[in-house]
């Protein structure tokens, strides 16, 4: 961002990659959106509530009260008649926008100081009619909370090291969290989306890892 805060992170592991959009805040790990090459993506409102959630089957759009505004299925995975996806455009903030045109046309754009970067995080997933997608393994409420608190403790230890190594508040406030902590926070949020837990607990876990 023009402020110097980290805006977009792209990570890769084997044949998978992810794009993470962070909020324009000093010393933050607050995630505004996560896009993955396997077709799973989530965008969040500024307060951490879910805005858009997509999978290889389809997606849904929620308002700030948590009500479903729109739901769709991707054409290539739905043999039955379906409601076509109307193009969606949202602004995560004044610099980052998201356009959803089709399963393989999901664009994240970043605009600042007259320069623009655009990323296509769409994917085309073909599934055989003779096979079924296996649901991801789910963790229990206690396990998810423990993972969230573990990441939070590691975040605090990292801040303590920053204070010791850089006594000047101005210096360590500008330091970004280590990449492994950002990745772990993202994975916990993914597990929360897949787990059968209450919205209250899901919000609490988001607040812990994004504190």
Account of the 3D structure:
This protein is an alpha+beta fold and 211 residues long. It folds into 2 domains: 8-120, no CATH class; 141-210, no CATH class. The chain contains 4 helices and 11 strands, in the order βββββββββββαααα. β10 and β11 form a beta hairpin. α1 packs parallel to α4 and α3 (179-194) packs antiparallel against α4 (199-209). The model is unreliable at 128-137 (pLDDT under 50).
Q: What's the arrangement of secondary structure elements?
A:
Elements: E1 8-13, E2 16-22, E3 31-36, E4 41-44, E5 50-54, E6 58-62, E7 68-73, E8 88-91, E9 96-102, E10 105-112, E11 115-120, H1 141-165, H2 169-172, H3 179-194, H4 199-209
Antiparallel strand pairs: 1-2, 2-3, 3-4, 4-5, 5-6, 6-7, 8-9, 9-10, 10-11
> How confident is the prediction overall: mean pLDDT?
80
The domain tally reads: 2
Q: Give me the count of strands.
A: 11
User: What is the terminal-to-terminal distance?
Assistant: 20 Å
Q: Major sheet: order of its strands? A: 1-2-3-4-5-6-7
Rg from alpha-carbon coordinates:
18 Å
- β-strand percent reads 25-35%
Secondary structure class reads alpha+beta
Unreliable stretches = 128-137
Largest sheet: 7 strands, antiparallel
Overall helicity: 25-40%
- H-E order: EEEEEEEEEEEHHHH
The dominant shape is globular
Number of helices: 4
Write a concise keyword list for the protein shown above.
211 residues, alpha+beta, 2 domains, seven-stranded antiparallel β-sheet, four-stranded antiparallel β-sheet, 4 helices, 11 strands, globular, ERIP6 protein, FAM194_C
């Amino acid at each position: 961002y023009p402020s110097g805060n980290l805006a977009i992170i792209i990570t890769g592991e084997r044949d998978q990659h992810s794009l993470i959009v962070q909020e324009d805040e000093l010393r933050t790990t607050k995630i505004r959106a996560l896009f993955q090459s396997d077709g799973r993506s989530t965008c969040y409102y500024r307060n951490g509530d879910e805005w858009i959630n997509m999978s290889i089957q389809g997606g849904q759009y929620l308002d700030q009260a948590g009500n479903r505004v729109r739901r769709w299925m991707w054409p290539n995975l739905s043999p039955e008649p379906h409601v076509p996806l109307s193009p969606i455009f949202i602004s995560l903030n004044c610099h980052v926008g998201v356009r959803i045109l089709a399963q393989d046309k999901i664009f994240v754009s970043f605009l600042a100081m007259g320069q623009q970067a655009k990323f296509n995080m769409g994917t085309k997933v073909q599934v055989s009619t003779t096979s079924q997608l296996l649901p991801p393994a789910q963790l229990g409420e206690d396990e998810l909370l423990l993972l969230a608190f573990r990441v939070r403790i590691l975040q605090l230890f990292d801040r303590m090291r920053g204070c010791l190594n850089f006594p000047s508040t101005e210096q360590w406030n500008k330091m970004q969290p280590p990449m492994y902590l950002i990745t772990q926070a993202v994975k916990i949020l993914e597990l929360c989306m897949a787990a059968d837990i209450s919205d209250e607990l899901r919000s609490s876990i988001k607040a812990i890892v994004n504190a």
